[in-house]
Design goal:
The complex is a heterodimer. By secondary structure, chain A is mostly helical. Chain A contains seven helices and no strands. The chains are: A mainly alpha, B mainly alpha.
């Protein structure tokens, strides 16, 4: 039951935040500030994480390929397609969930606990339009951008690993033979949906924190777990949807 | 940034990094020293809280990994005509990579975040100093059992996750590709050995240990009010996730050379 609430509450909050932001307008300055917070500050995490991931993925592919053909270049294009469609968006949104959901649920929960959110309401502000909507809008743009960055980092490190460590032609790995518009659309729609969901999950937990310092801590934990689990669920359903569309 | 600010920034970053790694080493060292005289009750509480209570979450993760891996590979299985090897390929990728990685990332959020938040709020509230005041060692009482409990919990959850994920893979392969469950498990059984399973469990144990060390350190270093507690939890989650990817990079070739 609480798991269902964890999945459902963010979508409700998202809908309400978007409606409020249409009604009251959103400060562009705040959106840009959030985009900087989330994008620039997560870039190092995404690039280093996906850089390591690319190398590990190639190592696994190499072990698998050695069993059949002894040649990694055969499975290279398939892995590249999987990276664009599946691994890239999933891993990047999990990392973005860790980074962005943790910081925004911590910020909103400590504001809620210290009654700053109520103070904002008292001075005719709207927490949904002023606090939640800028985060959602910024994240919907930033997560796809991070996704592109992460995919590039993973590909670059994969190419480097194949060329340097396995002595094969690394660039055969960047073969886009199997990648079509369906794969790109699949990856992009995952990134956008996760981008919308992550700040909404974090805000839902942050704004409902009650109590003292301990409540802030548990809001952070629950916010990140909801966001990451939501990304896994979104990833799964989009994958099913595109598979059905292809069939 | 002005030119004169760059050395100052570099110095501050280096100092911070040195302090953080020193704190990590202290936590690890003192935990090892405390291994003989662990507080049993606190250890059991940690195992229940971090391990047993995370079982539903690891079940959900296993379901999603298992179904997604087969959905995504089914295309290539048909294209390359490798139906008979699906059991091996899918099992291999779950045990070696996706099981430990995704479980580690989720546990970094759930266990690491909670651990850091609990210790930070005890620290900020002056309760750790209170324990020292009545000559109890907060380290032996609160920290060492948590580090042990977290590492063991993640390794234990990994076995459950692997088993469930492989079962879901077999089910997904049956429903999407019509691959008989027998064929799936034949290649799984013939081509995967004990070494592969051990590699996955060792990897998960190392991830758990890293999560425990980073989150404990973040909690103990927290200073301030409610904001500091949130900051400690957030820092624990972010740094654990980053460390998991780096550790994955080191462990995969290492375990591959040692165990296969």
């Amino acid at each position: 039951m609480s798991a269902l609430a964890g999945i459902g509450a963010p979508w409700l909050l998202l809908a309400r935040a978007l409606r409020q932001s249409f009604r009251r307008g959103v400060s562009l300055r705040e959106v840009l500030r959030q985009a900087y917070e989330m994008g620039n500050r997560s870039a190092w995490l995404v690039v280093s994480g996906l850089g390591f991931f690319g190398t590990v993925m190639v190592a696994i592919a190499h072990q698998q390929a050695r069993r059949f053909t002894g040649n990694i270049t055969v499975v290279g294009p398939a892995y590249f397609e999987l990276l664009v469609r599946e691994f890239g968006p999933l891993t990047v949104s999990l990392l973005a969930a860790a980074r962005a959901a943790a910081s925004s649920s911590a910020e909103l929960a400590s504001m809620t606990v210290n009654e700053q959110v109520e103070a904002l309401e008292m001075s005719a502000g709207d927490p949904l339009a002023d606090l939640v909507a800028p985060r959602v809008l910024a994240s919907a743009v930033v997560v796809p951008a991070l996704c592109v960055l992460g995919t590039v980092a993973a590909t670059a490190s994969a190419v480097a690993t194949v060329s340097l460590a396995y002595g094969a032609d690394g660039f055969s790995y960047m073969d886009g033979r199997f990648v079509d518009w369906g794969d790109v659309a699949c990856g992009a729609s995952k990134a956008v949906l996760c981008g919308l969901f992550i700040p909404a999950a974090a805000s839902a937990r942050g704004l409902s924190a009650r109590g003292g310092a301990a409540a802030v801590g548990s809001a952070v934990t629950l916010g990140v777990v909801d966001a990451a689990l939501g990304c896994l669920v979104i990833d799964f359903f989009i994958a099913v949807l595109f598979l059905l569309a292809r069939a | 940034m002005r030119a004169s600010a760059i050395p100052a920034w570099a110095g501050a970053t280096a100092l911070e990094a040195a302090q953080a790694s020193g704190a990590l080493a202290m936590v690890l060292g003192r935990t090892i020293l405390q291994l003989r005289s662990l507080d049993r009750r606190e250890l059991v509480r940690g195992l229940v809280l971090f391990g047993y209570r995370s079982l539903p979450l690891s079940g959900v993760i296993a379901t999603l990994i298992g179904a997604t891996v087969v959905l995504q590979t089914s295309l290539y299985v048909q294209r390359f005509g490798a139906r008979n090897y699906l059991g091996w390929a899918a099992g291999f990728s779950v045990v070696w990579e996706f099981g430990p990685l995704l479980l580690g990332l989720m546990m970094a959020a759930r266990v690491g975040g909670r651990n850091a938040a609990e210790l930070a709020s005890l620290n900020v509230g002056g309760q750790l100093d209170g324990l020292r005041g009545i000559s109890l060692d907060p380290f032996a009482l609160l920290v060492a059992p948590r580090v042990v409990a977290t590492s063991l919990s993640v390794a234990g959850l990994a076995t459950v996750t692997f088993a469930l994920a492989v079962l879901w893979e077999a089910a997904a392969a049956f429903f999407t590709l019509g691959l008989p469950v027998r064929v799936f498990f034949e290649s799984f059984e013939q081509l995967l050995g004990f070494g592969d399973l051990a590699a996955g469990v060792i990897k998960s144990f190392c991830f758990g240990l890293t999560i425990a060390l980073i989150s404990t350190t973040a909690g103990l270093r927290a200073q301030g009010g409610a904001r500091a507690v949130g900051h400690a939890a957030a820092a624990a989650v972010v740094w654990s996730s980053a460390a998991i990817f780096a550790l994955d990079f080191i462990l995969t070739p290492l375990l591959g050379a040692l165990l296969t």
